[in-house]
Amino acid sequence: MPLFWKHYQSEATQFINELKAKKPTLEAEQRAGRNLLWDREQDRDAQADFKAARVPQGAYVYFGRPKNSTR
C-alpha cells in the first residue's frame, strides 16, 4: 500500500460513528423499538382465517361494476 493511503469514510458513516460514540445505548434502543413493531409471535389461526376470508380480485380493478350487474 502506498504511504498516502488513507481509509475512506463517508460523511454518513462518520455521523453514525459519532452518534454511537455519544450515545452508546442507541443500538439497544433501536432493537427494543423494532421488537415493538416487527419481532412478534405470529397467530397462525388468525393468519389462516385472514387467508380464507380473502376475496379474489376482479379482472378490471380500475373500473367499477355496472349497476345492473348480478355479481
UniProtKB/TrEMBL annotation:
This is DUF3460 family protein. It comes from Pseudaquabacterium inlustre. The lineage of its organism: Bacteria, Pseudomonadati, Pseudomonadota, Betaproteobacteria, Burkholderiales.
